Amino acid sequence: MSYKALQINAPKPWPHNAWYQAAWMNEVSDTPLARTFLNEKVVLFRDKDGNAHALEDRCCHRATPLSLGDVVDSGIQCGYHGLIFDGDGKCVEIPGQDSIPPQAQVRSYPIVEQQEIIWIWMGDPAKADESQIIDFPFLDDHENHPHGHALMEIDCNYMLLVDNLMDLTHIPYIHKKTIGGGDQKGQVNAAMDVSKTDNGVHYIRWMENIMPPPTYAKGAGWGPEVKVDRWQEFEYVAPATVLQWTGALEHGRNAKENRNQDGGWNTHIWHTATPETETSCFYFWASTNSYKPADTEETKKLHEAISFTFHEDVSFLEQQQACLSADPDQVLVDIKHDVARKPARQALERMIRTDAEEMAVAAE
Ligand code: FES
Ligand SMILES: [Fe+2]
């Protein structure tokens, strides 16, 4: 089946020609894993040699999900009448039939395994350029940046999660018990240094000589007398990823000149939200313990604390989606604090426009 035959003409709120995180590497095994990305049903599995594959989750015989079948020596076997498809989606066996019609195949998706992530390319395979995959080396460095990773399935459009990360003035409100304690005015008034990039937006904001929030103070072992210089640095990379480095050092240690000092508290956070449908996404995240890397208990505690914080966001995002879905045409009002969120949306819109043009050319 050609890629051309699978073109979808209606405009979509996401680019197809892009890499998306499909799974964490350790989620994919010889047990088929069914996931929907960009409204397309996909099955992920590892063959007997340990190589991961992604196929359309629909048998070409009678449209049964292949994820209901089993991984066998030569590929994945449909659970209904036993057709076997190799990792490229080609039918290699029809039980009781000698010849295999050439059209007996399912779509296969390019995938790449890198830095604990399985990436999937949902668009034209000819355009799948591995050099575009985002580099986040911390995920490969368990000695200096130990971390756990997680997946949360959220009932909201993936860009609501990006919006959330582009406007941190939500922190003193949603996260008052975790990362939002301490100086609330400092949080809302912190100056944003925003710059556009080729495929997204970058910002950093500093809060100097402030009380650290409870999560930081607990992790670093700071008493109530300690004041800190705190930074929050974020980069949105269209379509669906946000890279974060956030932390604090005791006030007086010149954090602004050099953040790479021992001690204090800091974490590098991976966020990506792969669209499942227009109103749901897979939120993959990982948060490194880059301040006490030898302390495995601290790595576990940090993961639990961040997980708690992100669940605070998720409950808001799902309620926000419910309101938007109930009345999608009502106009929303931008405020000063949308200074990074707006260019992030514009970067995505540019990417979607380019994608639509490329798909139109491919369909000709
Ligand atoms: S539906 Fe898959 S083999 Fe028949
Ligand atoms: Fe948040």
Largest sheet: 7 strands, antiparallel
Instruction: Tell me the structural class.
Output: alpha+beta
State the share of residues found in helices, binned by percent.
Answer: 10-25%
CATH architecture identity of the largest domain: Alpha-Beta Complex
Ranges with pLDDT <50 over ≥5 residues? 1-11
Q: What is the beta-strand fraction?
A: 25-35%
**What's the number of extended β-strand segments?**
17
**CATH fold-type name of the largest domain:** Naphthalene 1,2-dioxygenase Alpha Subunit, Chain A, domain 1
What's the name of the CATH homologous superfamily of the largest domain?
Naphthalene 1,2-dioxygenase Alpha Subunit, Chain A, domain 1
Q: Helical stretch count?
A: 6
Radius of gyration: 23 Å
Instruction: Calculate the mean pLDDT score and round it.
Output: 92
Q: What ligands does this structure carry? A: FE2/S2 (inorganic) cluster, fe (ii) ion
Roughly how many Å apart are the termini? 17 Å
Shape: globular
Largest sheet, spatial ordering of strands: 11-17-16-15-14-13-12
CATH class of the largest domain: Alpha Beta
Describe the 3D structure.
By secondary structure, this protein is α+β, with helices and mostly antiparallel strands. The chain has 2 domains: 16-132, Rieske Iron-sulfur Protein, CATH 2.102.10; 137-355, Naphthalene 1,2-dioxygenase Alpha Subunit, Chain A, domain 1, CATH 3.90.380.10. 22% of the residues lie in helices and 30% in strands. The chain is built from 6 helices and 17 strands. It has helices at 158-166, 171-174, 184-189, 214-220, 296-326, 341-363; strands at 19-24, 33-37, 40-46, 52-56, 70-72, 75-77, 84-85, 91-93, 111-114, 117-121, 147-154, 192-197, 200-210, 228-237, 241-250, 265-277, 280-288. The protein has a 7-stranded antiparallel sheet with strand order 11-17-16-15-14-13-12. A 4-stranded antiparallel sheet has the order 5-6-7-8, with no helix packed on it. A hairpin with a 5-residue loop joins strand 3 (40-46) and strand 4 (52-56). It is globular. The chain starts with 18 loop residues before the first strand and ends with a helix. The relative contact order is 0.15. Residues 1-11 have low confidence and may be disordered. FE2/S2 (inorganic) cluster binds next to loops.
